[in-house]
Write a structure and sequence with these properties.
By secondary structure, this protein is α/β, with parallel strands linked by helices. Helix content is about 40%, strand content about 20%. Helix 8 crosses helix 10 and helix 9 packs antiparallel against helix 10.
């Protein structure tokens, strides 16, 4: 048996379409269940989920604490079977999705982490300038060149389409609630942080090319402002997952140099009217900005912990 788990928040309309797609999944012979955790929605999410209870092996929970990883950790309480498939509330699975994940887990017992193919489902046709950027981290889709096989870089396993052996969670492993979606400002990396942690413990990852989901890309995401804000969150997440040790005023010294260089690249691209180079440079600049922001946040957290420790000693 396997369990599919995902969190949702205020996406009732797209959630209805996604659950409708789940009704057409081919079930594995060993059975499956679906666990959906509502992360404090204020729209009609509860009504949408209730309308599918008689059509799916559906279990519903509510986690009021804001944060995707709080919701996922809560949902793990209802996981059954030997494999947990994790996805998003805006990811549309192909009909054989579960069969492909099940087969991969059965065929490769030495692997604990499995990632499938993620393609974009555009709400509207994307603008031509999208091709100037690496759309993988922007819209959480996998590179078209990825083939079936072992993944040496486990971060290529991504949240909308992944599976982890239940024994990992049974050992006590949980998602880090300091990272991942919660509100509008946060460090990205909800599932990536766990994958990297598992990799350091010796767990291996396998790419399942035939397990496919379509990740919905909303119209408002095809906007340069949204994309550049995404770059900041992306930078924040990667810094939190791998903080530097040599700091100046709480920030790694190399970031000051890199930001200055990228600023010069942006100026040159602007003067020379190179729109493609300018957009790519703005993405990199905001990615570096995100790292600086997260470095300062971590520095404040360390300072607060130090002050708390001093206060406890004094008392």
């Amino acid at each position: 048996m396997l369990t599919v788990l995902f969190a949702t928040r205020n996406r009732a309309d797209i959630l209805r379409d996604v659950l409708e797609e789940y009704c057409h999944l081919q079930p594995p012979s060993s059975g499956w269940k679906l666990v959906v955790v509502d992360n404090g929605s204020t729209d009609h999410t509860a009504e949408v989920i209730a309308s599918f209870v008689d059509r799916l092996p559906l279990h519903f929970m509510v986690e009021p604490r804001l944060g995707k990883n709080f919701a996922l950790n809560t949902g793990l309480e209802l996981v059954e079977g030997d494999l947990t498939a994790l996805t998003d509330d805006d990811a549309f699975p192909h009909t054989d999705w579960l069969l492909q994940l099940r087969k991969a887990a059965d065929d490769h017992p030495a692997y604990s982490m499995f990632g499938g193919t993620i393609v974009a489902r555009w709400e509207v046709p994307p603008p031509s300038w999208i091709q100037w950027l690496d759309v993988g981290p922007i819209f959480t889709i996998t590179p078209p060149s990825m083939k079936e096989g072992e993944l040496t870089f486990v971060a290529l396993v991504q949240g909308p389409n992944m599976a982890i052996r239940a024994s990992v969670f049974q050992s006590g492993i949980r998602f880090d609630t300091c990272i991942g979606p919660r509100g509008s400002s946060y460090p990205m990396g909800s599932e990536t942080e766990m994958l990297l942690r598992l990799s350091r413990q010796g767990h291996k990852a396998w790419h399942v090319q035939g397990a496919v989901v379509e990740h919905f890309v909303r119209k408002e995401q095809l906007n340069k402002t949204w994309i550049l804000q995404r770059a900041i969150r992306y930078g924040r997440g990667w810094y939190r997952m791998a903080p530097a040790s040599k700091l100046w005023v709480g920030v790694p010294r190399h970031l000051f140099v890199n930001i200055a260089k990228e600023g010069l690249f942006m100026c040159a691209a602007c003067v020379l009217f190179k729109r493609r180079a300018l957009l790519r440079s703005r993405w990199r600049f905001n990615y570096l900005r995100g790292q600086v922001i997260e470095a300062r946040i971590l520095a404040r957290e360390r300072s607060a912990r130090g002050q708390s420790a001093c206060t406890q000693v004094l008392h």
